[in-house]
Amino acid sequence: MFIFKNGISLYSNIPQSPEPIFKLPNSPEGYVNLHFFKNWIVAFTMSEGSFFINNNNDACYQLKQRLHVVLFDAIKLVFNTNLKLDINKDLYIQYSVSSIKDIQTVVNFFSFTGLHPLIGLKGIKYTTWLSDLRNSSRYANLNFP
Question: Which UniProt keywords apply (predicted)?
């Protein structure tokens, strides 16, 4: 977009560090207030998220990425949880939930909010995960789509 807006037609005219068009928010609330943030979480989940059942039959939803605490605090706000984030060697941060309340919030987010649906392999994994939840004694009473 920078190239078009500035009429640049030669590669040599592209500055080494162009001015940012959009500055990233500096607070969790700033991210949450971005009109596209919830759909961004859907896309982020498709690339970096996991839906799975642990060996102890706990259902889990998990996001893991390079360290960006403010972004993950914003995700916690969207999913309405005070869960402590797991920071691994100051390189990676992980958001993982398994409580009945948190899993219901995840199901509500991906199934009842009208956001872009999970597609591809992640959509298949989510559908399989929902089926496993329905057949689980712990999660069977959740509200499913």
Answer: Mitochondrion
